[in-house]
Structure formats: C-alpha cells, structure tokens
Amino acid sequence: MKVRIHVTLKPGVLDPQGKAIEHSLHDLGFSGVESVRQGKYIELELADDNQTKARADLEEMCRKLLANVVIEDYAIELVEEE
Amino acid sequence: MKAAVIVYPGSNCDRDIAVALEKVTGRKPLMVWHGESDFEAVDVIALPGGFSYGDYLRSGAIAARSPVTAEVVKRAAAGVPTIGVCNGFQVLTETGLLPGALMRNANLKFVCKDVHLKVENAATIFSNAFDKDQVIRLPVAHHDGNYFADPATIEALEAEGRVVFRYVNADGSSGNGANPNGSRNDIAGIVNQQGNVLGMMPHPERLIEQALGGADGRALFESLAQAIDKTAG
User: Fold this and answer.
1) Burial of B12 from C-beta contacts in 10 A (0-12 / 13-18 / 19+)
2) B233 has pLDDT over 60
3) What is the mean pLDDT of chain B?
4) Domain boundaries along the sequence of chain B
5) Full domain range(s) for residue A16
6) What's the rounded Cα separation, in Å, for the pair A26 and A33?
7) Cβ separation of B182 and A17 shorter than 8 Å?
8) d(CA A37, nearest CA chain B) in Å
C-alpha cells in the first residue's frame, strides 16, 4: 500500500523559506501570489494492506520521527492501488 | 570528572569539545559512537556540533532516534549533566529533553561569526564560573539556530530563569542585529526544568584559550568541573 505524507509548518510559525519563494515568484512576475508556505512530501510503501493498522502505525511514525509536532503538522493519505 | 562525547556520523565539533573538556578536567573524555547502546558511567555527557546524518529530515532529527541517544535521554532524565552545543542543542530539542525547536535562521543564511552573549543565569551548573549579566564573546556557525517555542513555553523559560545565554551587542544592549538568527527573545541557550541539561547554539569549546582568539568559553567547562567535583567531594 502506498502512503503520501505531507509535513507542513503549523499556522503561526514563521516560514522564512516560504517567504523567500514568495519574493522570487513576485520577481518572476507572478504578482498574484499572496502567500507561500513550504513543507515536505514523503512517500512510503507499506507491506501490509490493513488500513486500520496502517493508520495507527503512520500516526506513530509521524509523531515519533517524520514531523516535529512542536512546529509541524502532518497529513496522512492512503493511496488505493490501481 | 569524567565526560563522554557522543559522536554521530557528521559530527564535526566532537574533537574540539573533547579537547576543551580534557584541558579543564585533565581527563580524556570517552568518545562514544552513535551505534553504541551502552557506555561506562560518566559525570557529564556532551553532544557536539556538526551535521549529524547530514541534517536529513530536520537538523538533529535522526540523531535523536539513534541507539546511543536513547541511553543519553535515560541518563539525562536521571540527572546526569548533559550539554548540547549547536547540532547537540538541535538533538536535545528533538528528543524532548529541552522544549521548543531550532528552525531555519530568519534571514535564511548560514551564519558563521563571533557573537556576544549575556549570561542571564549564573547559578546553573553550566554557568556558575561566570558572573550574572557578564557579556561574553563566542562564535556561532549554524543554519538552523532560530529558537522557537510557543508563547507559554517562552514565558515559562523566562519566568523560571531557564534562559542561560541571550544574544546581545558587545555593550550588553539588545537590538541592532545582536540576534544572528531570529530566535525568540534573543535566546541562545536554555536549561531544562531540573537544570541538568543545557542546549546552546554558540560554541564555547572554540574559545577556551587566548591562542584560539579568546577564552570566554572556558568558564563553561570550569563551571561544570566545579559543580561536579563539589557533588563528588
């Protein structure tokens, strides 16, 4: 089973990298960009197809390592195989 | 006083801090590789600066979950004096031994220069050889030194005197670019609630004698040696 995880800075935590990207987009003429927040995208492949167990494991993975919950939020998405 | 220096792949200040500890204590520290899950009893544990695991994922994130760090966390929680400098500070926040997080510098630049610090609390085991409000000069060299914590945590750190070092100008004033990285409240170094774990971004081990350009960092190691000899004696 494939999993997609997005790790983003919590609202209210300053994101200087996002700001720099925003400035650069403005320099390129994309004046309509009002704000940019950047983060991480992580893909996992799980051996087990049990979604309930996967959810619990993934929560733990995010809390223990993939995200720093002091400053970051995470979103877990299980992807159905085609 | 016997010290251990933890060495992660990518640590690069481990030898500097080992030299500083040896100069002050007269004993060679134990160098402990990241894969070890146990090491002999020591009086002090030092987590050095550098780029453990290439700063992959987040600075200090992987090191905080390595086998040796589990042992460090256990001993620090049991009261063993533990100091983390630069990447070591990042590792300590990632383990939860210290609150908050060290984020990318506000100006996004790697900052490598001498800064001035005010000793805000000279009553810790890490700072008792300094005077309160003394201004010292130490180098910083980091990309992720922007200390962040939620307002309640910052308030608690301030109220409990747990901010040990704060970025200031040479005359002890704040503002005017004294803060090199955008850290909240100009925080450069903090201790945990029990006072036995210190994390700081500046490098005391790099200025321990005049031949190196200054000796302001030496008092930190002398503080530790004094505090520990007192407990032992």
Assistant:
1) middle
2) no
3) 96
4) 3-232
5) 2-79
6) 7
7) no
8) 14
CATH number, domain of A32, equals 3.30.1280.10
Distance of residue B182 Cα from the nearest chain A Cα, in angstroms: 10
Closest Cα partner for B32 from B64, B50, B8, B55?
A: B8
User: Which two tokens mark B160?
Assistant: 């409990």
What is the CATH architecture assignment of B3-232?
3-Layer(aba) Sandwich (3.40)
* Per-residue pLDDT tens digits for A41-58: 999 999 988 999 999 999
How many domains is chain A built from? 1
Are A13 and B148 inside 8 Å of each other by CB?
yes
* Positions of B marked catalytic: 86, 203, 205
Burial class of residue A32 in the structure, from the number of CB atoms within 10 Å of its CB (0-12 exposed, 13-18 middle, 19+ buried): exposed
pLDDT digits (tens, 9 = 90+) for B145-193: 999 999 999 999 999 999 999 999 999 999 999 999 999 999 999 999 9
Q: Which residues of B touch A (CB under 8 A)?
A: 57-58, 61, 65, 93-94, 99-101, 103-108, 146, 148-150, 182
Closest approach of B106 to chain A, Cα-based (Å): 6
Predicted confidence (pLDDT) at residue A11 exceeds the cutoff of 70: yes
With an 8 Å Cβ cutoff, are A68 and B61 in contact? yes
Q: What ipTM describes this predicted complex?
A: 0.85
